[in-house]
Amino acid sequence: MKESNQQTENESSVEMRIVRLDNDKTRRVDGSDRVYDVYFEMEGSAPQSWGTIFEGEWKLLNVAHPDLWQAARVDRSFLIMRCPLDDVVALHLPFLKKAVATTNVKYAQYARVIAKERSAQRLIWERESSAVEAVARLAAL
Question: What is the distance between the alpha carbons of residues 14 and 16, in angstroms, rounded to a whole number?
Answer without folding.
Answer: 6
